[in-house]
Here is the input.
Amino acid sequence: MIGAPWPTTSDRDADGRLTIAGIPVTELVDHYESPLWIVDEDDFRNRCRDYQEAFASAWVAYASKAWPTAGLMKIAAEEGLWIDVASAGELYTAQLAGVPGDRIVFHGNNKSVPELEMAARHGVARVVVDSFEELDRLEEVGRRVEHVFKVWLRITPGIDAHTHEYVRTGHDDSKFGFTMSLGLAAEAVRKALTLEKVEVAGLHAHIGSQIFGTDAFEANAEVLVELMAAIRDEHGVTIGELNVGGGMGIPYNHEDRPVSIAQYGQAVHAALVEACADHGLPEPQLAIEPGRALIAPATITVYEVGTVKHLPGLRTYVSVDGGMSDNIRPALYGAEHEIILANRHGSDNLAAVTVVGKHCESGDLVRERASLPDDIRSGDLVAVAATGAYTASMASNYNRLPRPAAVLVEDGTSRLLMRRETLEDLTARDVL
Ligand code: LLP
Here is the structure.
């Protein structure tokens, strides 16, 4: 076994080939072609189970934005998870995957009326309300289609989690939710309680993504319980459900050291119990919605090397057959996914190289500071770790590259999760 940040069944065979679930990636690429996303199904399923165990009686939802494809939603639902969707497209995919409405949570800071109508038709379990306008829209749609929406009010708790600016959401200056410190959360509760077609089932706060410590999560739980107490004091209403969001960090490379799933679970639960005791409140039903931590570590991307360009005194560029169209994370967030040679052992001497994609842009990085065998050459395969979250879901067709196929592997067998795009797919919407 190779260990984090690689999927749990990763290994090397006698020829030095990387294997996942006992299958050499060379064989998978021979069959499904390159680039290829490979998902270790057992790893994904075990993560779904670990979260449910670590957060005991909590409702655990898979934040499908991480990778909203039907096959993964189906597996998550089979493992007993709820599915979090954030658009009509994600909801439609959940329907396709056979996920019943009463296991779906609908998010989004600007849901449209048709999206809310769709939520009502599919009977989604909870709508996470983000704005005053949305409260009005829910009331209007609810009256029209005769539906009462059970909602969680999304609170902006004023917590500045230490993570990349683009994935921070809990600080006051955020586009998401009702800001506590400005009194908007209290005002939203006041308004929601007057509505006929909106039932306030709980509160929600997601503070950001790829967060390593437990402090911000504990603080989040405390702030939400404070608001519960304020609601009880003002309205005599006891809020029964608290959703503390997702955001648990994962290792992308050997340097990253997040806390374990169990530690996250214990910390959040302890903070919740203590805060409830302090305020004389019963412990609410806890809900969480991790995305990245469930699917990212279970997945790798394999690329074929096409060119190796040595610039003496400057650097060596290794170009692969994908890039920013299948993984925008290095370009967008400076993400550093670990990368290894995957089809053979290679030389024992490592070289510092920059692995780039095949797009017409210098920001098209796969890994800027990679360390790979110095005999790396055209035709080699490289594997990139922890690519299951926010790569396929944020993929584009830049330079009209077809998006890669994705396969699930389990105990020596493989099956398609998403087929490779074709050139016909790429032009299917073009009108001459
Ligand atoms: N709940 C809400 C309301 C969210 O907005 C998100 C992620 C999650 C749950 C799941 O968070 P996770 O457990 O995956 O951290 N594209 C960025 C990440 C954006 C996160 C968006 N919201 C990246 O590649 O790092």
